[in-house]
Every structure is written in structure tokens, then in C-alpha cells.
Design brief:
The chain is an alpha+beta fold. It has 2 helices and 6 strands. Strands 1, 2, 3, 4, 5 and 6 form a 6-stranded antiparallel β-sheet that branches.
């Protein structure tokens, strides 16, 4: 998936379907979340050390549904950062089946201090790691 530095492949399971046999709308968000988690893991934000005293939290998410999914579909989901702010970042997600668009999504994430229970500035080393990861896909922020 061009322009997306982190891509995950998933299979639509029977339990992912709605009563009409289509991929349930909530599962699109689960695929986005799984790919977002893979992105953050690549940055070193999750893992053996847990979340730490500061980390990203999800503030808002959205999805534009384009095509329905069905049982046993193999889908590909990409994640990339669109914008870096002072205390937040915006991500984009793309879900495809066989190279055809199924859905596009966005996520706003805030850098959060769990001890102070407040947002905090994005660390410079995190910004550097995000820019390096995006560069793999030929993108500059």
C-alpha cells in the first residue's frame, strides 16, 4: 500500500459480520486500531515497558465507508501520520481488499501525562521517530 509505512493484513471472520452477512461497521474501527497499534509499536511506544507515565491516547476517530466486506475476505489496512501538532497528532487509515478501497479513517491522538492527568507536549525524540518512519513510505512531515 503506497504511502503507508505500516500495513497489516487481516481476515474477516464469521464473528465480524452483522445480521446481514456484511462486515460490521465496528470492525472497520478494529482494523484501524490494530494497524494504529502496530504503528505505535514500531515507534517503541508499546511493549514490555507498558505505556509508561506518558503516551498517546485516542481523542477522536472517524470512518468513511466505501465498500462492504464479507466473510473470509482478506483485507489490508494502512496507517500513517498526517499532521504533527504541539500536543497531538492526526493519523489516517486506509482499508483495502485486493487493492480496492473499502474505507478511509482518521484518528486524533493526544500525548498524555497519566500522572498529571493532562495533555503534554509531544517529545522531540518521538517526533524524530515518526518522521523517520514516514520517510520509509517516501513521506515527509
Amino acid at each position: 500500500m503506497d504511502g503507508f509505512p505500516v500495513v497489516c493484513e487481516e481476515k474477516v471472520r464469521y464473528g465480524d459480520l452483522d445480521p446481514f452477512g456484511h462486515l460490521n461497521n465496528t470492525v472497520f474501527f478494529q482494523f484501524f486500531e490494530q494497524t494504529r497499534l502496530a504503528y505505535m509499536t514500531r515507534l517503541g511506544l508499546y511493549g514490555a515497558n507498558g505505556r509508561g507515565s506518558q503516551n498517546v491516547i485516542l481523542a477522536e476517530t472517524s470512518c468513511r465507508f466505501v465498500a462492504e466486506g464479507h466473510y473470509d475476505d482478506r483485507v489490508t489496512c494502512g496507517a500513517r501520520v498526517l499532521r504533527l501538532g504541539n500536543r497531538s497528532l492526526e493519523m489516517e487509515h486506509r482499508l483495502e481488499r485486493g487493492g480496492a478501497l473499502m474505507a478511509e479513517g482518521r484518528a486524533a491522538l493526544v500525548w498524555y501525562d497519566f500522572e498529571k492527568k493532562a495533555s503534554a507536549p509531544l517529545p522531540e525524540d518521538l517526533i524524530t521517530r515518526i518522521r523517520a518512519l514516514e520517510l520509509i513510505a517516501g513521506r515527509t512531515l
